[in-house]
Each structure stands twice: as C-alpha cells, then as structure tokens.
Write a structure and sequence with these properties.
Helix content: 25-40%
Distance between the termini: 35 Å
Mean pLDDT: 90
Low-confidence stretches: none
Number of strands: 12
Shape: globular
C-alpha cells in the first residue's frame, strides 16, 4: 500500500445514552493518491467514521493521524484545507445559481467578512469546466437533476483545494447513467492526484472504481487492502452475512447472491 494520508488506530465510539459501541477497536490506513472504497451493510459504522474524520463527532478512544500529525492539532480551517466532504444529498432552500453555490466552497480561503476575489472566481469556473458543468453555471440549483446536483456538490468540495475528497454514498438514489457519471468523475480526479475516499454498500461500484477496499461490519474492519485481494466471496459473505459468489465479467469482478 502507498503512504497513508490518514492513519486510524483503535478507534472507539458510542452515541450518547447508548452502551452499544458503533465503532470498536477500528484501525485503518487510508492511502494517498488513490481511490479507497469503504464497503459494508447499513449500520456498519461507515457514516459515523466519516463524521469523526470531519471532526463532527468525537471518538471515545483511539488515535487519528493526518500526514503524521494528530487530528487534534489541526484547527477546523486547517482541516478544511486537507479534507473536503461531499454528502449523500443536501437540501437547498435558496435560489442560488450553480456558480454561486460552488463558490461557497472557497470559504476556507476567504477571510471573515471578505468578498471572493478574482482568483476565487477563476478557481470556481475552472472546476465547473473540469466537471463539465460550465453550461449550468447560471442555472438555479433548485432546477438540477439528481446527477447534476451530485456533481455540483463535488465541484463545491474541490474548490476548497483539499488533499482528500471524502464522499458518503455518492451514488445513492441515482440511476445507472448518473452512477456511471459520478464514478467516472472520481476516477479522473484520482488520476489528477486527488485522494478519494467514499463509503458505499455496493461492491460492484467499489470493484469498478477503487484501488483499495475496506470491508466493515458492526463497527469493525473485517479486511482491507488492494481490491483484488480483499474482494473475495469469503470476505463478502462475512461482511453481508449472506452467501455470495464473485465472478469475472470482461476482467471486472461482479458479486452475485448464491441462489
């Protein structure tokens, strides 16, 4: 595995008032400059892990290091330069244009009460161009399709100029065409040097896109490493609790339920 951007050791977490551990003894390295898919069923703790990495939740125990330094030494602004987050979806009540909405991602680079500079606008237009969103720049975000809106969320995250793009279930609720569009976008971003980490419950999308795979169940890492080594019928059966087969189609693994 290549050098880790984030290292996690013995992470523990429980929600207030609940004695059940959502994460228990979780250890994991997230490699730099590639795509890592964190795969597991609903309730595995994937989203909780994401929120801890963003500083939204505080772990009960364990250590997280980013670029060799404890996450605790970073300010919220410094973290925003390292990690940008793309949620599953986001409700927007105001009639922003796509350009205005994506420009909000420049907030970590803009001082308090300052206006966006020419450079901020240029960086925003550049990301719209990179993601094929330039024709939508003046359109209202309230008029976007599901796939278009997800790409706009990715563009807003990228204008932060982070080292890592962290996405939570980025293809949920999208049709096959838009799923492919989002996954192809993640592949191109990694080819340009962005570290991409995303959660998913879909092993086929992970096999198609990721170089590294993390299998989670009940708050623990069952297996992690290169996709070809981790994506096995035995590992996936343990992860999902149902018997599965892994077959090769045109050189790609596909996961099938055992009949």
């Amino acid at each position: 595995m290549t050098e880790a951007l984030i290292s996690i050791r013995d992470l523990e977490f429980s929600y207030n008032g609940d004695h059940r551990k959502v994460l228990q003894g979780l250890s994991l390295d997230l490699p730099a400059g590639s795509i890592t898919a964190i795969l597991g069923p609903n309730g595995a703790g994937k989203s909780t892990l994401v929120h801890i990495l963003l500083g939204i939740l505080k772990p009960a125990g364990g250590q997280i290091s980013i670029l060799g330094k404890s996450i605790q030494v970073y300010t919220r602004r410094e973290l925003s330069h390292l990690i940008a987050f793309v949620p599953q979806s986001e409700y927007t009540a105001f009639d922003f244009s796509v350009l205005e909405y994506v420009l909000m991602g420049r907030a970590p680079h803009i001082g308090m009460l300052q206006m966006p500079t020419k450079n901020d606008i240029e960086r925003t237009l550049e990301q719209l161009e990179n993601l094929g969103l330039t024709p939508l720049a003046r359109r209202s975000v309230l008029e976007l399709s599901g796939g278009e809106h997800q790409l706009v969320l990715i563009a807003r995250a990228l204008v932060q100029e982070p080292q890592m793009l962290l996405l939570d279930e980025p293809t949920t609720h999208l049709d096959l065409s838009n799923q492919g569009r989002i996954l192809n976008t993640l592949t191109r971003l990694a080819e340009r040097g962005t570290t991409v980490v995303y959660t998913t419950h879909d092993p086929d999308s992970a096999a198609r896109t990721a170089q590294y795979l993390v299998l989670m169940r009940e708050g623990q890492v069952l297996s992690s490493g290169e996709v070809g080594l981790v994506l096995t019928a035995q590992n996936l059966t343990r992860t999902y609790g149902v018997p599965v087969r892994v077959v090769q189609v045109d050189g790609y693994p596909f996961v099938l339920l055992e009949s």
